[in-house]
Amino acid sequence: MSTMSLLAKTSKVLLETCYKNISTKYTPLRFHGFFNSPFLEDVQIKARYEVTKSPEDWKYVERILPPLTVPELPQREVFISDFKPQGENHKHKPYYIARTRNHMIPVYLKIKQRGVKKLSYIRKIQGDIWLLQKELEKFLQPMSKAPLRMQVNEFAGTIIMNGDYVNAIKHWLKENDY
Amino acid sequence: MGSSAADKALNLLRYLPRVCLANIRDNPGAVKKSRRGRGQHGGDYHGDGNKGSGQRQNFMRLGYETGNNPFYLRFPWEPYYKGHHLRRQYPPLSLEQLQLFVETNRVDASKPIDLVSIMNTGLYQIFPDKHQFGVHLTDEGADLFKCKVNIEVQWASELVIASVEKAGGTITTAYYDQHSLQAMINTKKFFERGIPIPRRMMPPPDAIEYYSDPCKRGYLADPEEISKERLVLSQKYGYVLPNIEKDKDYTLLTERKDPRQIFHGLHPGWVVNLKDKTILKPQNEDLKEYYAS
Amino acid sequence: MSISPIFSSKMFHRFICHFRQALPTRTLSSTAPETSPVEPNKNVIIEPRQLKFLPKYKEPCQVWVENLDTIDENKLGIIELHPDIFAVNPRIDIIQQNAKWQKLYRYVSYAHTKSRFEVRGGGKKPWPQKGLGRARHGSIRSPLFKGGGVIHGPKSPNPHFYMLPYYVRVNGLTSMLSIKLAQDDLHVVNDIEIPSDEPQYIKELIKSRNWGPSVLIIDEVDMMPRNITAATDEIQHVNLMPVYGLNVYSMLKHDTLVLTRAAVDLIEDKLLTALHRNSTFSYTKKFVLNQV
C-alpha cells in the first residue's frame, strides 16, 4: 500500500515538474516558426547610432516608398501620348466598356501557334454586347477581305475576334469616348 | 446601359438553390484527362516517331534547312557574342512610355526621376542578378516628348539626351552597383530588412569612361563641361536650348545625388525604421569615414 | 442591380424559401407589405461607409445592419457595400477551383504499393526455363503472379500541393461573397456581443431569424467576446472565424455568413487593395516553394 501511494506521489511530482518546464519553456505562439523566431539576444551592437525623427528627412523616405494601389488619374487638358481618359455620360448608352485598373482600354492581342494565329480580345463589356459586336463589325469589316469571325461571350463580357485589330478597336473606342 | 451579365446571373441565383459544396463544378471541358489508348496501336507513338522534335514540336529547330548544311554552320566561327553573358544589360524604357507614366500619374515629374521612381510605377522591372544594371531610355516617341523632367537613367543615346533637353529638362546617366540596385528595386522591402543604406560603388573600369563623359551627361563629368555640351548638342540638332538658370524649377532641375548616394536626401549608412518612423544615423567616426569615402 | 436595393429581397426571399417550389415567380410588391416594418434602434448609430475605387455606372449594394443582442431581429440601419466585391459575376467555375485547391493543397496521399523488387522473396527462378512445358518465369513476385508486385502503383507519401494563381483566389472570394449576398445568405451585424453564454440563445436566435442551420460568423479580430465564444463552442455547425481566415470552402460549407461591420470594412479594404495593386509582378509570378 505504502509503495503504491509513494509511486502515485512521485508520478504526480514528476508530472507537475514536467508540466512546469513545458509550460514555461514552450509557450505556444501564434504564427511561430523558424523564419520569425526572435533574434539572438546576446548580440552586442557596438556602433553608436543617433535616433532622429526629423520630418524633413522623413519626407525623402516617403517619396521613395512604392504606392500600394494604382494612383488616380490627374485632371489634365492635353495628352501628348496616345492616352485618352474615358469620357463621361455613358449612363444611357446601350453598352459600356470599363477601363482596367491601370486606366487603360481593355483590348489585347493574343498570338497563338507560334505567331500564326492572332486574336484580338475585348474585355470588361457591360450592357448590350451584341450591339457592340454589330457596330464593331461594321467598322472593321472594310479592313478585311474575308468575313470577320467574332466570338461573343455574354456571361464573361468579352469579344474575341480573328485577326489583329487591336489598334483599330482602340482607336474606335477612343473616338466613342470609351 | 442595360444590366450587365453579372446582374442577370445574380438575379437568377436568387431563385436557384443555395450554392454549396454539392452543386459546384468547373466549366465543362476545362480539365482534359489524359487517357490510355486501347487496341492494337494503343501503346505506340501515334505516328510521331521516338523522342526529339518530331514528337514534341510541330516545327523545325531554328536554322535547320531540311538537310542542307545550315547557314549558321557554313562559315568559320567568329566571336561576335563572346562574353555576352557577362555584359551589362539595360532593359529599355521608351520616351513614349515615360511620357505616359508622367501623364497617368505613375511618375511625379515635380520631383527628380530616377530608377527608384521608375521601379515604383510597378510597370517596369529589372533583375540585377541577371546582369541588368538599370534603365536604357530609348528614343521611341522622341519627337513628341514634352515633359520637363530631371531624369537620371543608366544609359541614353544622343537623340534621347537632345529630346529631354529640348523639352526643358535635364538628364544624367549614373551607374549603380548590384547592392545599390537591390536596395532600389523595392525600397519598402529594403528598409524592412533593417540594414544600413549601402554606399554606391564607383563604376567598373570599362564603364568609367561612359559615366565621366560630358557628352553622355555622365554623373562623374565636370558640370562646366556638361553645360558646354548642352549648347553644342542644341546646335547640332537645331533647337533653342531652354535657359534652366532662369527657370522657376531651377532647384528641381539641378538636384543631383552624390556619387556615393543612392536615394535623394538619404545618406549611405543611415538605417530607416519604417515602424517607428525614425532614421538611425551612425555616430562612430570610423563609420562616418567609411560611408563618406 | 435591377431590383430595389433597399428591400434587398430579404423578407421576400425568406418568404420564398418556404414556397420555393410553389411560388417561384412572386413579385416583390406582393409580399413586402405583409410584414410590419421594424423600428430601427435609435441608440445605435450606423455611420455611412466611404467606398473607395467605386466603378462607374454600378450601384453600390445595400444591406441591413442587424443586432445580435436580442433573439429577434432588430434592424439598426442600412450600409452600402462595394459592387466590385459584393456584386461581381458569380463565377461558379472559379469557386469550384478554389474549393478543390483548398481540399488538395494540404492533402497527402499515403496509398502505397510494393513493386516486384520490394515484395519479399522472389529471388530464385521458380522453375527451369525449358523442359517443363510451362511458361517461362524468372520470379514468383512478378506482377503476373498472385502476391506479386504492382506496376505503376501508388507510392507514399504523395503530396497534392499546388498553388492557385493569385487573382483566381481573389476572384473566388469576391464571387463567393456576391453569391452569398444574392442568395440572401449574407448578414451584417454591428457587433457580436450577446447577453448570454448559453448555446440555446444562439440556437433560438438562428431559428427566429431563419438563418442557417449552419452559420459562419466572421469578425475583424481573432480574440472574440467571451459570451459568443462560449455559446457557439458546443454547437458544431455555428463557427467563429477572423477575417484573415475567410475562405471559399468555409463559405460554401456554411449556409449563412454573418459579418460584423468591422469585418466588412476589412474584407473590402483587403480585396480592393488586391484588385487595384500598383505592382502585380510579385503576385502573379510563378509560385516557388520557400520564396522570400
From TrEMBL, chain A:
Main location: mitochondrion
Ribosomal protein recorded as keyword: yes
CC annotations in GO: mitochondrion; ribonucleoprotein complex; ribosome
Pfam families reported for this sequence: Img2
Listed transmembrane segments: none
Keyword Signal belongs to the record: no
Top-level taxon of the source organism: Eukaryota
Compartment(s): Mitochondrion
InterPro entries (UniProt xref): Ribosomal_mL49 (IPR007740)
Keywords for this protein: Mitochondrion, Ribonucleoprotein, Ribosomal protein
Family assignment from sequence similarity: Belongs to the mitochondrion-specific ribosomal protein mL49 family.
Protein name (database record): Large ribosomal subunit protein mL49
Source species of the chain: Cryptolaemus montrouzieri
Automatic annotation (TrEMBL), chain B:
The keyword Repeat belongs to this UniProt entry's keyword annotation: no
GO cellular component: ribonucleoprotein complex; ribosome
Name recorded for this polypeptide: Large ribosomal subunit protein uL15m
Record keywords, A-Z: Ribonucleoprotein, Ribosomal protein
Large ribosomal subunit protein uL15/eL18 domain location: 92-172
Species name: Cryptolaemus montrouzieri
Family: Belongs to the universal ribosomal protein uL15 family.
Keyword Ribonucleoprotein among UniProt keywords: yes
Pfam family, one: Ribosomal_L27A
Renumbered residue ranges of the record's region Disordered: 27-57
UniProtKB/TrEMBL annotation, chain C:
Keywords: Mitochondrion, Ribonucleoprotein, Ribosomal protein
Assigned GO CC terms: mitochondrial inner membrane; ribonucleoprotein complex; ribosome
Location in or out of the cell: Mitochondrion
UniProt xrefs under InterPro entries: Ribosomal_uL4, Ribosomal_uL4-like, Ribosomal_uL4_dom_sf
Record's protein name: Large ribosomal subunit protein uL4m
Pfam family, one: Ribosomal_L4
Family: Belongs to the universal ribosomal protein uL4 family.
SUPFAM superfamilies: Ribosomal protein L4 (SSF52166)
